[in-house]
Amino acid sequence: MERRTIGAGALAVGAVGLGCMPMNWAYSGSRRRGDESVRAVHRALDLGVTLLDTADMYGPFTNELLLGRVLKERRADAFVSTKVGLLVGEQHIVANGRPGYVRRACDASLRRLQTDVIDLYQLHRADPEVPVEETWGAMADLVQAGKVRALGMCAVGARSARRPGGRLHDGTIRQLRRVQQVFPVAAVEAELSVWSPEALDELLPWCTSRGVGFLAAMPLGNGFLTGTLTPGEGFEPDDVRARHPRFTAEMTAANQPIVAGLRRVARRHGPEVTPAQVALAWVLAQGAHVVAVPGTKREQWVTENAGAAGVRLTGEDLAEVAGLPGALGSWD
After folding, report:
1. DSSP designation for 255
2. CA gap 216, 201 in Å, rounded
3. Cα–Cα distance measured from residue 6 to residue 188, given in angstroms and rounded to the nearest whole number
4. Most buried of 36, 175, 211, 299, CB within 10 angstroms?
5. Residue 101 is a catalytic residue
6. 18-19 and 118-123 strand pairing
7. What's the CA angle centered on 283, arms 117 and 186, to 5 degrees?
8. For 77, which DSSP code?
9. DSSP letters of 209-243?
10. Which of 27, 58, 101, 121 is catalytic?
11. pTM value?
C-alpha cells in the first residue's frame, strides 16, 4: 500500500488506516465479536493498513485491550494512535486535561496496548478547566520520556466549535495555534468525507501549510457512503446513528443521490470498485498528507477499504463528486 507521512518527523503510515472504535463502542453492541475484530486487525496489518486508531475511552478501555492482543504479536507491523482527555461515566463524558492525569492515563494505555511506546498520542478534547498549554506540556513530557513518539489533536465537536459568525473549525485552529508554541503538532484528526467536507475550507489548508498530517475520521459518513444502508431499516438503540438527524428514514432516503453519484464513478473504474472505495479515494485525493481512517470491525470491510488506496480518481471523477448535492439534515 502507498505510504504517507505524518508531521515533520516523517512518520510513515499506510494511506488507509483502521478506525477501531466500532469494535467496542458507539455502534450496535449485539454485532460485536472480539475474535472477529482481532481477525480484522490482523487482516489490516497484512494489507499494509498500519495506522490503528483507538482511544482509552472506547469501551471504555476494552478497545485498547483488544488491540493489545494483536500488538503483543505484531507490534513492529503497526503504527499505534490512541487518545487521552475524556472520561466516561454512567451517563456522561467529561474532559480531564490535568497533567497528572495525562501521565497516569498514558501509562495505563501502554499497559493495555502491551507496548512500550505509543506512536501518536492525541488530545481527544481540551479540558475547559485546564489551560490547553498545560495539558500539551504534559503530553510533550511523555515524548521526552520515550513513552510517546509524536502528538496529535482531535478537532473539537461541531456544536462546541461554533460561535456567532464563526466557522466550524475556528475553535480547533485556535487551540492548535496555542499548543504549537509548546510542542509541534504532528497530526490533526477531524471528520472529512464526501458528505461532510467542511475541513477543506480552513482546517486542512492550515495543516498542509505547516506540514501537519491530517487523519480523516468518518470518511465513509458513519457507513452511509458505502451504499449498504437501507432507508427505514433502523438501528439498535445503543447505535449512535439511532439518534442522528442524518440517519432518520426520511434523510437516509433524501440523501441517496450522493450514493448514486459515487456508484456512477465506481462503475467507470470497473465492476469490482465500490462506492465506499470511491468515497475513500476522494478523501485521499485531497492531499499527500491525508490519511483516511475508516472504522470497521469486519475483515470483509477492511479488505474493501484497503483496496481504495489503489483507486485513482480522474479529474472528471473529482468534478462529478464535487457536483453532487450537499447532504440534507443537520450533522449536530
Report:
1. T
2. 14
3. 9
4. 175
5. no
6. unpaired
7. 30
8. G
9. HTT-EEEEESTTGGGGGGT-PPTT----TTSGGGG
10. 58
11. 0.94
Q: State the amino acid at position 244 in one-letter form.
A: H
Q: Which of 190, 161, 174 is nearest to 133 (CA)?
A: 174
pLDDT by position in tens, the chain (length 332): 999 999 876 789 999 999 999 998 767 676 678 899 999 999 999 999 999 999 999 999 999 999 999 999 999 999 999 999 999 987 789 999 999 999 999 999 999 999 999 999 999 999 999 999 999 999 999 999 999 999 999 998 654 444 444 588 999 999 999 999 999 999 999 999 999 999 999 999 999 999 999 999 999 999 999 998 877 777 888 888 888 888 888 999 999 999 999 999 999 999 999 999 999 999 999 999 999 999 999 999 999 999 999 999 999 999 999 999 999 876 55
What is the C-alpha separation between 20 and 227, in angstroms, rounded?
21
Q: Which amino acid is at 239?
A: D
Cβ atoms 79, 113 nearer than 8 A: no
Q: Is residue 254 packed enough to be buried (19+ CB in 10 Å), middle (13-18) or exposed (0-12)?
A: middle
Residue 107, all three cell numbers: 501509562
- In this structure, what C-alpha cell is assigned to residue 63? 478497545
Type of residue numbered 269? H
C-alpha cell at 75: 507490534
